[in-house]
Write a sequence for this structure.
């Protein structure tokens, strides 16, 4: 049985290290978030039942492999609705696991000193791009590596490619922004990976400072207030994320239920 108690056990997401590069100085999200209201009225909260059904139907225009092919192309032809079905359709694919590690952890560790540099050589950037492409091939909605990919294109003066992939990253952020306001649990944002909570906030120009779980299935991310009008934090609904996780790891859920039963008897 999936319940808030199980959810709580799996939402202690470690505060991720901020690896946001100089791209944050290059990307201007003012225009993007000025369009947030329009995107919300067009898309709104995702209909996850419909997305689950359409993303696995080969006859649907929202069939995930079709959208994946379109997303990976070097163009900007996808609509906002297609971006929404693509982003949330991630949760209904066979290989989806919200807590899986990025591939090639050894290379990632080698890159950590490069991410920390103020200035990076051409070789540094090529290594960053190679890893970003590897991760995006494994997980196309990895916001961090999409950010790094754009940064390298900008630094290498491949401006057309940078604009294309900035467009894609901005649309994914708009999809999340359109899912709610984050002001309270009833209007919580919906993301497909726990780390997207931090990345969405950081890429919005704020700084995430802490995380706590609130029953039945919400993460609350506290932020450094940018001004008096900035909320103290934002809510994220992770119920579908956890539902899909336990559907693929039923033995873990059974183990938790046994532990809970034993604890109750004691």
């Amino acid at each position: 049985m999936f319940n808030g108690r199980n959810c709580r056990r799996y939402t202690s997401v470690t505060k991720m290290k901020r690896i946001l590069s100089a791209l944050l100085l290059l990307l201007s999200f003012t225009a993007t978030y000025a369009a947030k209201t329009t995107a919300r009225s067009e898309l709104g909260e995702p209909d996850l039942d419909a997305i689950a059904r359409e993303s696995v139907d080969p006859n649907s225009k929202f069939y995930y492999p079709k959208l994946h092919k379109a997303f990976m192309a070097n163009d900007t032809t996808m609509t906002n609705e297609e971006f929404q079905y693509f982003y949330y359709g991630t949760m209904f694919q066979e290989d989806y696991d919200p807590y899986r590690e990025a591939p090639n952890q050894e290379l990632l560790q080698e890159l950590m000193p490069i991410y920390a540099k103020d200035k990076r050589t051409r070789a540094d950037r090529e290594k960053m791009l190679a890893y970003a492409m590897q991760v995006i091939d494994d997980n196309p909605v990895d916001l961090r590596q999409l950010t790094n990919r754009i940064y390298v294109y900008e630094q290498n003066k491949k401006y057309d490619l940078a604009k294309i992939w900035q467009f894609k990253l901005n649309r994914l952020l708009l999809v999340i922004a359109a899912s709610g306001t984050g002001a309270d649990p009833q209007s919580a944002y919906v993301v497909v990976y726990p780390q997207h909570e931090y990345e969405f906030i950081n890429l919005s120009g704020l700084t995430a400072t802490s995380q706590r779980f609130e029953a039945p299935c919400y993460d609350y991310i506290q932020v450094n207030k940018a001004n008096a009008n900035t909320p103290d934090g934002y809510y994220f609904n992770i119920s579908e994320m956890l539902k899909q996780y336990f559907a693929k790891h039923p033995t873990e859920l059974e183990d938790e239920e046994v532990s809970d039963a034993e604890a109750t008897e004691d």
In short: The longest strand covers residues 207-214. The radius of gyration is 19 Å. The chain has one domain: 4-265. Residues 67 and 86 are 6 Å apart (CA to CA).
